[in-house]
Amino acid sequence: MASPLKTPVLRMPLAGLVRSSPKASFSSVRPASCLSHNLRPQCYAPATVSIAKTFSSNVSDKPQPGELPPLNWNSFFKLRVSRRRYQLLFSITNGLFAGAGGAAFLSTGMAEPIISQIPLDPFMTLGLMTVAFSGLGWLSGPSIGNQVFYLLNRTWKKQMTQKEAQFFERIKKHRVDPTNSSASNPVPDFYGEKISSVSGYRQWLKDQKAFNKKKTANFV
């Protein structure tokens, strides 16, 4: 039979023994729920939730199958060159068609009242008006070519617009002051229209620095 003094000690909870032990450190103390066999899964619940959150965040950072990859600068310049070709193609085409249409319209004689008011030879007047029609067609080419290009490459339109805004911000930041130009020291590609690659942009930066050095040398 157990003595009366030992009975309270045996009935004391296990958590109390752990807490009352002077050798137990603060980091080694666990709550009573972790020591219980029935409640043991709750001790690992926070770790499981954190692992699940980390995994879900890593999955969300990956591009979705339907999303496009980010547009880099080399691809941007390639698309920019392609767009310029579309614009040039439609400028030439529109210029030819507009000139031919203008010549056909003038040959009908409907513009005789206007031609008679111009103090020039009628044939010269007709030629100048035909050239004017061709010029209007040429000027409308870039707008039409731009629309056709974005119609065929609509998936890149948003990213290309953003990249183009960043590109022109860089051009404005690094280009030289045109008021200091001269016949011997012209401005090197003020709008950056000739830049067609990353290496071309680096060369453009070198040209801007060379312009400033030459300007300083001429000033001294």
From TrEMBL:
Q: Where in the cell is it found?
A: Mitochondrion inner membrane
Looking at the UniProt entry, the stretches that span the membrane are: 88-106, 126-152
| Coiled coil regions, renumbered to chain | none
Q: Entry's InterPro entries?
A: Pam17
Q: How does it sit in the membrane?
A: Multi-pass membrane protein
Q: Alphabetically, which GO biological process terms does the record hold?
A: protein import into mitochondrial matrix
- Pfam families the record matches: Pam17
One Gene Ontology cellular component: PAM complex, Tim23 associated import motor
Query: Is Metal-binding found in the keyword set?
Result: no
Nucleus recorded as keyword: no
The alphabetical list of record keywords is: Membrane, Mitochondrion, Mitochondrion inner membrane, Protein transport, Transit peptide, Translocation, Transmembrane, Transmembrane helix, Transport
UniProt-listed PANTHER family: PRESEQUENCE TRANSLOCATED-ASSOCIATED MOTOR SUBUNIT PAM17, MITOCHONDRIAL
- What family does the Swiss-Prot or TrEMBL record give for this protein? Belongs to the PAM17 family.
Subunit structure comment from the entry: Component of the PAM complex.
Stated role: Component of the PAM complex, a complex required for the translocation of transit peptide-containing proteins from the inner membrane into the mitochondrial matrix in an ATP-dependent manner.
Would you tell me the protein name for this molecule? Presequence translocated-associated motor subunit PAM17
Q: Which organism is it from?
A: Fusarium austroafricanum
